Amino acid sequence: MPRLPTDRPDVVVIGMGPGGEAAAGRLADAGLDVVAVEAELVGGECPYWACIPTKAMVRSAELVAEGHRIPGMAGTAMVEPDWRPVARRVRALTADWDDTAAVERFTALGGRLLRGRGRLTGPGEVAVEGSDGDGHLLQPTTAVVLATGTSPVIPDIPGLAGTPYWTNREAVRAGAAPDSLLVIGGGPVGLEIAQSFARFGTIVTVVEHGGGLLGREEPESSELLLRALTEQGVGVYLNTSVVGVEHGADGFTVRCDRGERLRAERLLVAVGRRPDLEALGLGSVGVPTTGRSVPVDERLRVVPASGDRPGIWALGDLTGHGLFTHVAVYEADLVCRSILGSGGPPADYRAIPRVTFTDPEIASVGRTEAQARAAGVRVAVGGTDLAASGRGAVHGPGTVGLVKLVADADRGVLVGATIAGPQAGEAIGALTVAVQAEVPLRALETTVWAFPTFHRTIGTALAEVLRQLP
């Protein structure tokens, strides 16, 4: 085997998604010689195929829905949905899937980019299979940062392989709304895309093997969303598994375990994501690859099965603390502090916010009631109906939502919260601070919430919690 050209930078970053890009840029800006390895687009899934394009789709769909609410509140309006402006806007926001600006931003900081796939081949050694066919051997003197993210899970359903099914990547590149769409999976990705297309006239059906949508969220918010989707004409099959797929000139036919045969022009597979740990070569440094995440310590340093910890850090989706850009960027900060020796607190995941951008929007932070009870917390719960608030009345007919607070009754602090309704993702910020800072409930009781805002419903739910405390 020919000897590969060897390079000895200070740091190698494998994967340039949001977390890898943030870490590589900061380390390069600090004066380290950083080589980043990326096979696809610098910036990763979020700006090109996930967060940004899907939220552009959601925003356009919101405008369509608002147009239909005009009668009875503001006169009359003729709404004629057209996907073409949506597709143009998605292309503009993704720079037509071109990462030139991101690459230039990184190299301007002094970083170097290798196009290809990196793999650990031993302690302090990374082999790169270049996109141009060339090979490279990197021997970083200080650190390796793993930030390769995840890929869609494609279930082993008979007949699925080889068909032109969609993942989120194909969905965001759609030039037209399909006549009909069948979505396998009732999680955030599938539901955001499902509702967006439904509002542009697509006949949408969602098949979910579990007993509810958004299985990791509070059941009250999941049920609220289910009712809303059903009222909007989206078909939802719960406790249903797909057991076979056929594709032909007329589109897809899906067979379900309860006997249903569902047909649609397009099929979206959105059952989750997972990392490819084997491809990273973790076994070469004694790290097990049988789990769903990379084992790390509180500073995100990779922990082998035995022996000394190698100079390897992991961040983002690989660590298993949520497939969110904000988690990846937070962890990038921790990794950089550790590598640069600048100290700071260890990783803390008590107050990670999450938002599903459906209508109603579902936002939450911390633990659900069930999670808190499972952890042995003596729980106090309070809730209120968003529609019954002053802002709910002003917002108009069709407004639905709720606030649910989960408190530790012994310590007198919030450990979790959920808001469902218009702009819930904005309102959850106040509760994120409360959970993270462990603001005493009695201090929150004296908070003055502006009227009439949706935030004011937090005070109503809090009053119910406080009635359960000594």
TrEMBL record:
<feature type="binding site">
    <location>
        <position position="317"/>
    </location>
    <ligand>
        <name>FAD</name>
    </ligand>
</feature>
<keyword id="KW-0274">FAD</keyword>
<dbReference type="Pfam" id="PF07992">
    <property type="entry name" value="Pyr_redox_2"/>
</dbReference>
<keyword id="KW-0285">Flavoprotein</keyword>
<dbReference type="InterPro" id="IPR016156">
    <property type="entry name" value="FAD/NAD-linked_Rdtase_dimer_sf"/>
</dbReference>
<dbReference type="InterPro" id="IPR036188">
    <property type="entry name" value="FAD/NAD-bd_sf"/>
</dbReference>
<feature type="binding site">
    <location>
        <position position="55"/>
    </location>
    <ligand>
        <name>FAD</name>
    </ligand>
</feature>
<feature type="domain" description="FAD/NAD(P)-binding">
    <location>
        <begin position="10"/>
        <end position="332"/>
    </location>
</feature>
<dbReference type="GO" id="GO:0003955">
    <property type="term" value="F:NAD(P)H dehydrogenase (quinone) activity"/>
</dbReference>
<protein>
    <submittedName>
        <fullName>Pyruvate/2-oxoglutarate dehydrogenase complex dihydrolipoamide dehydrogenase (E3) component</fullName>
    </submittedName>
</protein>
<dbReference type="InterPro" id="IPR001100">
    <property type="entry name" value="Pyr_nuc-diS_OxRdtase"/>
</dbReference>
<dbReference type="InterPro" id="IPR023753">
    <property type="entry name" value="FAD/NAD-binding_dom"/>
</dbReference>
<feature type="binding site">
    <location>
        <position position="208"/>
    </location>
    <ligand>
        <name>NAD(+)</name>
    </ligand>
</feature>
<feature type="binding site">
    <location>
        <begin position="185"/>
        <end position="192"/>
    </location>
    <ligand>
        <name>NAD(+)</name>
    </ligand>
</feature>
<dbReference type="Pfam" id="PF02852">
    <property type="entry name" value="Pyr_redox_dim"/>
</dbReference>
<comment type="similarity">
    <text>Belongs to the class-I pyridine nucleotide-disulfide oxidoreductase family.</text>
</comment>
<keyword id="KW-0547">Nucleotide-binding</keyword>
<feature type="domain" description="Pyridine nucleotide-disulphide oxidoreductase dimerisation">
    <location>
        <begin position="352"/>
        <end position="461"/>
    </location>
</feature>
<dbReference type="InterPro" id="IPR004099">
    <property type="entry name" value="Pyr_nucl-diS_OxRdtase_dimer"/>
</dbReference>
<keyword id="KW-0670">Pyruvate</keyword>
<dbReference type="GO" id="GO:0050660">
    <property type="term" value="F:flavin adenine dinucleotide binding"/>
</dbReference>
<feature type="binding site">
    <location>
        <position position="272"/>
    </location>
    <ligand>
        <name>NAD(+)</name>
    </ligand>
</feature>
<keyword id="KW-0520">NAD</keyword>
<feature type="disulfide bond" description="Redox-active">
    <location>
        <begin position="46"/>
        <end position="51"/>
    </location>
</feature>
<keyword id="KW-0560">Oxidoreductase</keyword>
<feature type="binding site">
    <location>
        <position position="118"/>
    </location>
    <ligand>
        <name>FAD</name>
    </ligand>
</feature>
